[in-house]
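Predict the structure of UmuC domain-containing protein.
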Amino acid sequence: AGEEAGEEAGEVGEGVASWLSEVEAARRVHALAGPVVSEIRRRVRDATGGLTLSAGIAPNFLLAKMGADVNKPDGQHTVSPTVEAVLAFLSATPTRKVPFLGRVAEKLLQEVLGVRTGGELLEAAAEAHCLFSRGRADQLLQVALGWCEKERGGDAGAMQKGISFSDTFGSSDEPAALRRQLWTMCEGLGASMLAAGLVGEKLTLRLKDSSFEVRSRAAPRGAAIGSAGELYARALPLLERELRRGGAAEGGVPDSTRSHARLRLRSIGVMMTGLSRVRAAAGAEGGGG
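Done. Here is the predicted structure for UmuC domain-containing protein.
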């Protein structure tokens, strides 16, 4: 029995040593990330004649995306890979800066629970389960903890929730140029969906204007689509509606006295959700014939 206990203790010790080695390696990589990202930003600026970009460095995609918003339009922000650093970062982050939260959920959190930051969201996790569905409340808790759902382990064949394509360009208020940019985004998304064998039912258009304010507009859920032409046909009415509404005054606040102001954009993104496999749909049709 003593020998067995000694062997088990040895295995545990080896496991702990391996884990500590991986943690130390991750910390070394994280320490190198700052200079590397800074160099990437410099090279982009030099190669494009001055195009600026912001970046986030963090333990996962969600936190890095949030970090990239901190020092816009030309800077970077690092969230250290420790529990304390992650929670400190989230505690000061407004809920409107949290990706994937959505305007409706943000409004509910503010008006019903008084939640305006990631820290307050974590404190109100129990109340959130009374306000939202269980799945949505669990998702909000994950966000408040800085847990990125995309990087969870699990079934490699599980269906992804969404697919998107976006780009940043020199700001423009020319409708024809913005339509061309939208077509380019739909081409890119269509190619990605074709390569992945996916079609989707719900399209969301994400627009970022020259003051870095973001507008997300969703088309009604419809038939599953995936080609560039189909994506463009569903996205174009959303863009046209925003072009008619025009731009915003200083600070991103719409100004009704300047109805003639044109919308100036610097980024367009298209996302599809409600995904399904093309091959599965084709197989089902073949079986019915």
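Residues 162-284 form a domain with the Dna Ligase; domain 1 fold (CATH 3.30.1490.100).
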